Amino acid sequence: MSHRQIMEALTGLLAAFFTAILSSTIVANALPTIMSELRGTQTDFAWVITAALLANAATTPIWGKLADLFDKKLLVQLSIVIFVAGSVMAGLSETIPLLLTARVIQGVAMGGLTALAQAIIGSMIPPRDRGKYSGYMGGVMAVATAGGPLLGGFIVDSPLGWRWTFFVCVPLAVVALVLLQITLKIPYVKRPAKIDWLGSILLTSGVSILLIWVSFAGNPDYYAWWSWQSGLMVGGGVVLLALLVLVESKVEQPIIPLKIISERTTALAILASVAVGVAMFGSSTFLGQYFQVARGATPTEAGLLTLPMIAGNLIGSVGSGLLISRTGKWKRYLVAGSILLIAGLGLAGTVDHTTELWLTGVYTAVLGLGLGMVMQNLVLAVQNTVKATDIGTASASVAFFRSVGGAIGVSVLGAVLGTRVTQLANEGLAAANIPVQGDAGASMDLVDLPQPIRDIMRAAYGDATAQIFLISAVIGVIALVAVLFIKEKPLRRTVDIQPEVEPGQAVPAPALPAPAAAAAQAESTTAAPGRSAGVDNPDREFVGVLRR
After folding, report:
1. DSSP 8-state class, residue 293
2. In sequence order, which ranges of 384-496 are alpha helices (DSSP H)?
3. Angle between helices 264-289 and 307-327 in degrees, nearest 10
4. In the chain, what is the straight-line distance between the N-terminal and C-terminal CA atoms, in Å?
């Protein structure tokens, strides 16, 4: 395919991907307002994000496997329809449980869009040229990530209200659906379809139980880290995942092929993706909360204050993608991106409720630059090691573990933040001789609080946020170590893996289309005995084979 044909095919796909990312980020700056209106707590705040990430993570491998078996275009359109249904339901929600249900539906659709976008790009473009196109996808992600908080903040501050942060994605999804129908034309080769339903159930159940456990463990309202509830949930989750491994080693078409994820590059990329997921989702989720709750910014202002991180993400993603396509070298950008990721998180770990805002901008710009250089290029490294028929599964595996890392990160970091806020708030109230009633850090509704208490709560949220970034920086070290051990393989110039030819082995003649093969067969049957078909010189015939 020419560059023009590829860009035409990607138009609708990138529009759908943009809509999915926008739906995630547009809610970030609206969440404090939503929690205030629906009387939500810090745990509810984290779960509005985690519910979508959990559904995204649990269904991404399933979508990836379906992409290898069925028409990718049809699957993308189906995921958009599911996404529209979830968005409308979220916009109409009157309670936290209903909102969480809607976010699960959105997460299922986002899992499809994420897995299928990577799979379709992998099916059309050779890895050697895929860097710049992955860079374009990273650029779309950066723009959606930047535009989401800004658009969400503007909508919340306008007469439309927070519900339109969900409704506004519906027309965008419809536009993406139409563009996909017009522009995306990829061949569909029908294959025997056999879906691993048992593996899908075990995967979803095991991951869900463990994520629910980390979300509520240590919370005084639920159960302690060391308790019979924790033992039951952890034990159950581990048993289910162990059964998953057993099933995947036996079935004909596993949902997560062990032969793919056990390959060195894929295994290390998955490990790095978990750490990157914690950094990406954790920082984007709690950064908007820091600006609004701790610094008193409006939703629109909070969106503007996140622009440095988005600009860094855009530059890192597009710049590294273009350089990789030009040079064919990719590991150096993963290493540099991991170092910048750790540095940005470490610097962000020094902020408090009095830090100069321009300093937070510098810190988050470094963080964004690292994220941009790592995220898409980890998928590229994995796609370079698998056959075209396994592109969907391999890409989905990386996206799956990144989403799992993000869900775990948001849940655990949210629990840590809630505990730390409560501790700092109680200390501040005691120092001010203000009696503490109940859990001082449970509610995010600061609007109706008296000014002295509100100031103490803002300071508590601001100072507690630093701990979140420091924990993420430590986890980021895991990504750097994993990347260092990845062996760099040259990016191939073909979409599929070509068989290797040993020295001295005859070069296999390329497969001809049916009409050409028939013509060649006819020519060979009419050739004179002892002579090549239409060729007098055997050496010239060999050259002709090479040319073909």
Report:
1. I
2. 391-431, 451-485
3. 160
4. 19
CA 52 to chain CA centroid, nearest Å = 12
Q: How many helices (H) and strands (E) does the chain have?
A: 20, 0
Classify the C-alpha dihedral 295-49-466-356 as positive or negative. Answer: negative
By the 8 A CB rule, do 491 and 128 touch?
Answer: yes
Q: Which two tokens stand for residue 524?
A: 């060979």
What does the DSSP 8-state code read for residue 41?
B
Print the SS3 string covering 468-488: HHHHHHHHHHHHHHHHHHCCC
Element spanning 61, H or E: helix 42-69
Which three-class secondary structure state does DSSP give residue 192?
A: coil
Q: How far is 548 from 543, CA to CA, in rounded Å?
A: 9
Joined tokens for residue 129: 């040229």
* Cβ proximity of 136 and 372 under 8 Å: no
* CA atoms of 33 and 48, how far apart (whole Å): 13
Copy the structure tokens of residue 96: 């936290």
Whether this model's pTM surpasses 0.70: no
- DSSP β-bridge partners for residue 443: 41
Q: Tokens 């609708």 map to which residue?
A: 12
Find out whether 302 and 149 touch, Cβ atoms under 8 Å.
yes
Q: Phi, psi (5° rounding) for residue 372?
A: -65, -35
Read off the tokens for 512. Answer: 């001809």
Distance (Å, whole) CA 352 – CA 350: 7
Task: Give the contacts of 377 (CB within 8 A, at least 6 positions apart).
Answer: 131, 134, 320, 321, 324, 330, 333, 334, 337
**d(C-alpha 41, C-alpha 46), whole Å:** 9
CA dist list (Å): 191 to 69, 118, 389:
6, 20, 10
Side-chain half-sphere CA neighbours of 148 within 13 A: 26
Tens-level pLDDT at each residue, the chain (548 residues): 667 777 777 777 777 778 777 777 777 667 777 877 777 666 677 678 777 777 777 777 777 777 767 777 788 888 888 888 888 888 888 888 888 888 889 888 887 877 777 677 766 776 666 666 766 776 777 677 667 777 877 788 788 888 888 888 888 888 888 887 777 776 666 666 566 778 878 877 887 788 778 767 766 667 777 888 888 988 988 999 889 888 888 877 777 777 766 777 778 888 888 888 777 776 667 787 788 777 877 777 777 888 888 888 888 888 887 888 787 788 888 899 999 999 998 898 888 888 888 898 899 899 888 888 887 777 777 777 767 666 666 666 777 777 777 777 777 787 788 778 878 887 877 777 776 655 544 455 565 666 677 778 778 888 888 888 888 888 889 889 988 888 877 765 555 555 544 445 544 444 444 444 444 444 444 444 444 444 445 445 444 545 55
As a whole number of angstroms, the distance between CA 529 and CA 538 comes to 14
Contact criterion met (CB below 8 Å) for 353 and 462: yes
